Amino acid sequence: MLGKRHEIAWLQSGFYREKFRKVLRWLTVSVFIMFFLIGAIIYVVLFQPTVHYYANTIDGKIMDMPQPRT
Predict the structure, then answer these.
(1) What are the TM regions of this chain, as residue ranges (predicted)?
(2) 69 is a domain residue
(3) Within a domain: residue 32?
């Protein structure tokens, strides 16, 4: 009787150990993905391209407008 309980407990602990490692692996991957996305957001915010404004005249010519002073 005691042997059967011990075997069931051993099987359950193996099951939970396997699931814990699988969840831990996915959490580790998700942390790396979050760091990558944070880095991508910081890059986009810091290195924004300059904005060019264009205007067109009545006869259809496109002219480059001067950059606003900030």
Answers:
(1) 23-46
(2) no
(3) yes
pLDDT digits (tens, 9 = 90+) for 49-63: 877 888 888 888 888
Q: Is residue 70 part of a domain?
A: no
> How far apart are the C-alpha atoms of 41 and 35, rounded to whole Å?
10
- Domain of residue 43: give its range: 2-64
Report the number of distinct structural domains present in the chain.
1
Q: Per-residue pLDDT averaged across 10-23, rounded? A: 89
DSSP the chain: -HHHHHHHHHHHHHHHHHHHHHHHHHHHHHHHHHHHHHHHHHHHHHTPPPP--EEE-TTS-EEEPPPPP-
Q: Taking the C-alpha atoms of 49, 55, 60 and 63 in order, what is their torsion angle to the nearest 10 degrees?
A: -70
